[in-house]
Amino acid sequence: MAKQIEGVYERVLVCAKEEFLKSGYKDASMRTIAVAARTTTGSIYTRFGDKEGLFSALVEPVVQEMLKTFCRTQELFHALDRQTKIDTMPEYSSKSMGQLLDYMYARFDEFRLLLDSSYGTKYHHFIDEMVRIEVESTYRYMEVIGCENVKRGIVTEEFLHIITTAYFEGVFEVVRHNMQYEEAKKYIHMLRDYHMAGFGTIFSPPNT
Questions:
Q1: Which residues in 116-157 belong to E strands, given as ranges?
Q2: Residues 6 or more apart from 69 whose CB is under 8 A from it?
Q3: DSSP class of residue 151?
Q4: E-strand spans in the chain?
Q5: Which DSSP helix (H) or strand (E) runs through 77?
Q6: Percentages helix, strand, coil for the chain, rounded to the nearest 5?
Q7: Is 49 left (phi over 0), alpha (psi -120 to 50) or beta?
Q8: Which of 136, 121, 152 lies closest to 52 in space, CA to CA?
Q9: Cβ pair 150, 143 in contact under 8 A
Q10: Which residues contact 15 (CB under 8 A, 6 or more apart)?
Q11: Mean pLDDT by 10 residues, the chain (208 residues)
């Protein structure tokens, strides 16, 4: 069977990545991918179902691993006691962003696909899921520490969604701008400081 021919699957993925990065998902040509991979479009459809299935084979493992790690980080933080949360939140946030940065640069092409080439696929809004998780986690934190602005309804989940979206969009700009790792690391550090300063003016727990 065609799917058992050694090396075809791997060649298709390599060539598909190049074509998607060059042309974007919507304009990518399955025929171009097939020719470059020395196979047929039929064999690609047999293996991947359709063009989005092929795109998914490239990015789905990365998305799932990133979300799994991100959720695990949140779970570990919420397992801490109240005072430890307050004392370590900035450090924990910085560590989490550092881990995300390292992961992005270890899978840089896949993140380029997600950010620059995914229009027309279910992955076009992949950042939304990270925002949803972060908003839920942050709101839990605010309730635990007794944030008055949350109690009074001044800070809402809708507001958290707005500022969290802005933050994550900023984080992923390092990929969109094709920054070198060291430059990106500096950028993320500055962005985190900027975000945490703003965070503190609105969300800091009341003095007791």
A1: none
A2: 99, 103
A3: H
A4: none
A5: helix 51-78
A6: 80, 0, 20
A7: left
A8: 121
A9: yes
A10: 33, 36, 37
A11: 70 97 97 96 95 97 95 91 88 88 96 96 94 92 86 88 94 96 95 87 59
Tokens standing for 198?
A: 């703003």
Give the C-alpha separation, 207 to 67, whole Å.
35
CB 18 within 8 A of CB 12: no
Residue whose token pair is 């990133």: 66
* CA–CA separation, 188 and 91 (whole Å): 14
The number of C-alpha atoms within 13 Å of 176 and in the hemisphere containing its C-beta is 10
C-alpha neighbours within 13 Å on the C-beta side of residue 56: 10
Structure tokens at 168: 């994550």
Question: pTM for this structure?
Answer: 0.88
